[in-house]
From TrEMBL:
The gene is dut. It catalyses: dUTP + H2O = dUMP + diphosphate + H(+). Substrate binds at residues 65-67, 78, 82-84. This is Deoxyuridine 5'-triphosphate nucleotidohydrolase. Its cofactor is Mg(2+). NCBIfam families: dut (TIGR00576), PRK00601.1 (NF001862). Residues 16-144 form the dUTPase-like domain.
Amino acid sequence: MAEHITVKVKTAEGVTLPAYATEGSAGMDIRACERVVIRAGARGCVGTGLYLEIPRGYEAQVRPRSGLALKHGVTVLNAPGTIDSDYRGEVRVILANFGENDFTIESGERIAQIIFAAVTQARLETSVELGGTERGAGGFGSTGRK
């Protein structure tokens, strides 16, 4: 069974709360609260009318909806977008239109998913040397293609 946290939500008038589409859904669908046209090859920022109070130690991740990406080439540009627990402004979604046609988002349309996740903060420790590995400093593509 999934762990549950409580997230306080304030909404603009008429905004539908995010919801899980099925019992097994990892993300809640979030909806636009305004009409926006995103030109082919362009990007836009879409308001949701949602304001969150995320518990400390958690974040919200904004992720694309697969149907928009496959059918229209519209996706969340900085996926996943992170909403920090101390942010209290409106949740806005940066969408990019990689499709060949302009795409109109209507108010109330599902535009992204939101997932709440625990956060681990790191403490950095400076060091003169790092431990060795088989890979070493091999970067992009260094482990092969297959």
